Amino acid sequence: MQTAIQEAIGVDADNRRHLVLVNRVGQRLSRLNPGEQQVLELLWEGQSNKEIASRLGLSIRAVESRRSKLMEKMRAESLAKLIRMVVATRSLIAGP
Description:
96 residues
């Protein structure tokens, strides 16, 4: 029984750490302007800068600028890390 309690405490600690991370990511997402949010959604869909530029009627440079700003605001060192952040927040919102 003591082992089960210790395991439950460990799971709870992991869940709390995850919720803190998701909360931080949510706060960062709320700081994005509408243009950055659009670029993020299209990156999430797997589109390239060129495809995003075409879809939004922007220059590739404008997309690169928005992408750079959103990466900075999200504190993501790479596109992979950015996508992991979005996955973490969406999985929490979607639920089990």
